[in-house]
Amino acid sequence: QTVVTQEPSLTVSPGGTVTLTCASSTGAVTSGYFPNWFQQKPGQAPRALIYSTTNKHSWTPARFSGSLLGGKAALTLSGVQPEDEADYYCMLYYGGVRVFGTGTKVTVL
Amino acid sequence: EVQLVESGGGLVKPGGSLRLSCSTSGFTFSRYSMNWVRQAPGKGLEWGSSISSTSNPIFYAASMEGRFTISRDNAKNSLYLQMNSLRVEDTAVYYCVRGGMGATKDDTFDVWGQGTMVTVSS
Question: Which of A7, A46, A47, B44 has its CA 20 to 30 A from that of B113?
Answer without folding.
Answer: A7
